Amino acid sequence: MSTYYHKKWYQRWWGVLIIIFCLLLIIVIISSAMYYFNTKRAIESGELQIDPETGEVFNPQKLREGTSNYYLGAEDPDLTIVMFSDLNCPYCQKAFPVIKQITKDYSNRVKIVYRDLPVIDSTSITLSQAARCAGEQGKFWVMVDELFARQGEFELNELPKIASSLGADEVQFAACLSEDRYLDAIRKDMRDAGTLGIDRTPTYIIGEYTAAGHMEMEQFQLIIDQLLEEN
Length: 231
Fold this sequence. Notes:
CATH topology of the largest domain: Glutaredoxin
Distance between the termini: 85 Å
Structural class: alpha+beta
Strand content: 5-15%
CATH architecture of the largest domain: 3-Layer(aba) Sandwich
Number of helices: 9
CATH superfamily of the largest domain: Glutaredoxin
Strand order of the largest sheet: 3-5-4-6-7
Number of strands: 7
Largest sheet: 5 strands, mixed
CATH class of the largest domain: Alpha Beta
Helix content: 40-55%
Order of helices and strands: HEEHEEHEHHHHHEEH
Radius of gyration: 26 Å
């Protein structure tokens, strides 16, 4: 006499699928709840902020510093200064020696991040790209120095020769420039500046503070010393 074995619902294939689906649903609900409460806590603490126009949540520190920008000074700083600059801006030209002096005087404590905000005229974006194309060959800062030093004294078609005079490979540099290789990165800097409410150069974000326009070394020292002391 044979015995018929009746499978319970959770032993059937469709029952197993229901169990798997329910487990996945529980995981999604728990993960969503954790994300919501962690995000809410981060917003309340100021670690994250909400863009009032788009409603997007963003990390203000990452937004200020960017993700692929060149910097001078300390790798692990006590204070970070972000400079939004235009290589065609005369006030940025005047400011750059001050910036370099800060990195010398506060080399172990201050980091200065350079970000592009080409707003002066149509050549500004090309100059920003030229600096980044030179940076591809380890010549970013010397190119920035040279472009500021020779501001308004050369034509754009001379950029490959200028890069070559600084030790960069002229053909590689020219190819980079013609391909607009770093245009997206520059546009990201510009979008971030817009989100931060920055529309002029030079503009500095010093810690949590924002200052626009040229600043003398003495002004920087007062602010930096105060913030370093507070930290």
